[in-house]
Design goal:
Two copies of one chain form a homodimer. Chain A has 347 residues and is an alpha/beta fold. Helices cover 43% and strands 13% of the residues of chain A. Chain A has helices at 24-34, 71-80, 84-89, 98-109, 124-132, 145-156, 167-173, 175-183, 198-210, 226-233, 241-244, 259-268, 277-290, 297-308, 329-339; strands spanning 44-45, 57-61, 91-94, 114-119, 136-140, 159-160, 189-193, 215-221, 271-275, 318-322. In chain A, the strands form two sheets. Chain A has a six-stranded mixed sheet, sandwiched between helices. In chain A, strands 5-4-3-6 form a four-stranded parallel sheet, sandwiched between helices. In chain A, helix 1 (24-34) crosses helix 2 (71-80). The first copy, chain A, is globular and about 60 Å long. Chain A starts with 23 loop residues before the first helix and ends in an 8-residue tail after the last helix. Residues 1-17 of chain A have low confidence and may be disordered. The interface between A and B is medium-sized, with 28 and 28 residues.
Chain lengths: 347, 347
């Protein structure tokens, strides 16, 4: 892949992010570090009609991780890279979603104290789930969350583990890509959800290094298509939260790629497809009744791309990364009901 | 384990079934034979509150097999044990359920012709699914099914692959037990659904040989408790189909254990627990929203036993075998709605 032209809005215009892109060696080291602490998920062959002769389809079900999402990989890698001194002081992050539970889980497993700064109003269930994993939870007004983390870093010497804009986290997420190529060495297309961009950055680093002929494609909801627009325009754009908030894919409501993910995506990713809310619902339903998996809407976008946007994708052996399965039961059941209405446009 | 007293109703009262019980060597040979053709399922650690300090719980999700149930293991082992001459003539079975699709799938993967005798009235979806796997489907009145299979064996030289009363099939199902002990060597309790008894026979053969301290416990719906009654009374009893048909666990409506499974169960199984329909619904709901798995009601009985009948089970590290995930969407969604009402009786 030739380097794209410099991006004038990029904070690191002279080249890669300081420290460079995450490479295959870093992902392999992460795999060794997290082995046994994270589920080695299987690759599931989808049955017809999800799978077709033109596009044999496999699902990588990260929804089966102990905390229900791939986030456990990056958090575990980051926690296990701490120095003894850092580990003794503990870690901190601001998140109310899958990263909060992943970091709490990873820290507990390593015997390290975790503090999660959760913006109010936060769902009581998410606060309780994070506290149940032994983490200290501090609730703050949303506008205060980054400042509160900075205060804790300064006052208590905590180490911040960001959800995606971090080389340790990206290397951990990249183990998904290592496992895909190990299980399906002749994979042609890997579909990965994009929110802040950590998962696809790591997966692309691993897959493009191991199998240069394969294409890694990002998937976003139409209602949160900031990365698709960024790739199209060659600059890292931000969307308004009032816009991204409309998608049912709550895990994909981040409004802008991280700077380090953006460096990976512009160099390593072959394209970004967007899917409609009706297509997401259809994919959630197909995953439930044809693959027997409970997918969160954000995790189902890749299956939606395979089912409904085949014409925009390279042909061949395709893996859809199902990134998570943490759902609100009522909302998920409602989505299943609407999913019935989606029809499939040919191959 | 001391041999139990002879069973007067047993067709083989002098000792074990001709050929003896399936042993660990047979299960290990099956594992080698089916490797690569069947999913090596992971063992999933359940989160609190499904898992408790007294009973840490893992789920063995056979629902993730390509045909949605463990049946693929036994069918694949049996198909791969055929002589070249038998393979050239093809296989036959009567079934309208998970065994039909498993045999069709296993035969197609081995390049062998499969005939499935399906009793009418059969759901069109099941007939279509079996035909989509390349099998010849013959529909007959229910009373004719065994005779029709016998005719095909005589007239066409087909080899019958029964769903559970068969040492090849039992050895294949036993690979579930091998994998459980490989992933959790200090397992204490293994919970297995019982219908005709093939799955628990193979699992008990493997688990009790590899870990004599572990207890294998069967689970049935109260509405289809023929095996529980058989073990209690020391004889292989049959229930009326009009009785077993009332359970939502359609995969567990078989009315009597097979003779070979009965030999295994009376010698190797530590007990059989029965669960209510409400408990099954509660387990289906817990599996969906706490483990992110779509379980068929018959597959969820083991989780129901762990959640609601802990007092009847030995304590310790427990594995619930989730045997399948093939559901009718409408019926499954209705069951999820009723599942909310079940409360958990303590530990």
């Amino acid at each position: 892949v030739a380097d794209p032209p410099p991006d004038p809005a990029d904070p690191h215009p002279a080249g890669p992010h300081p420290g460079g892109l995450v490479d295959l060696a870093a992902v392999r080291a992460a795999a060794d570090r997290i082995a046994g602490a994270v589920l080695r998920t299987p690759l599931l062959a989808a049955a017809a009609p999800m799978s077709t002769p033109d596009r044999p389809l496999w699902i990588k079900p990260e929804s089966l991780q102990p905390t229900g999402a791939f986030k456990l990989r990056g958090a575990t890698n980051a926690v296990r890279m701490l120095s003894a001194e850092q580990a003794a002081r503990g870690v901190v992050a601001h998140s109310s979603g899958n990263h909060a539970q992943a970091l709490a889980y990873a820290a507990r497993a390593a015997g390290i104290a975790a503090t999660l700064v959760i913006p109010d109003p936060a769902p009581a269930a998410k606060v309780a789930a994070t506290e149940a994993l032994g983490a200290r939870v501090l609730r703050v007004p949303p506008a205060r969350r980054a400042a509160r983390v900075a205060e804790l870093v300064a006052a208590e010497g905590l180490t911040e583990i960001p959800p995606y804009d971090d080389a340790r986290v990206i290397a951990g997420q990249g183990t998904v890509g290592l496992e895909i190529v190990a299980d399906l060495p002749d994979v042609d297309v890997v579909l990965v959800p994009i929110s802040g961009g950590g998962l696809i950055s790591g997966v692309a680093a691993a897959v493009t290094a191991l199998r240069p002929g394969a294409t890694v494609i990002g998937v976003q909801p139409e209602l949160s298509g900031h990365a698709a627009q960024s790739l199209r325009e060659g600059r890292r754009v931000a969307w308004d939260p009032g816009r991204t908030f409309r998608t049912a894919a709550d895990a994909l409501r981040v409004t802008q790629l991280g700077t380090l993910p953006w460096q990976h995506i512009r160099r390593l990713v072959g394209g970004i497809v967007t899917v409609t809310e009706a297509e997401i619902a259809g994919a959630v339903r197909s995953l439930a009744f044809a693959a027997r998996l409970v997918a969160e809407p954000g995790g189902a976008v890749t299956t939606a791309a395979a089912l409904y946007h085949g014409g925009q994708l390279p042909a061949g052996r395709t893996v859809a990364v199902l990134s998570g399965g943490n759902v609100d039961p009522r909302a998920w059941l409602d989505l299943l009901a609407t999913g019935a209405a989606v029809t499939r446009p040919g191959g």
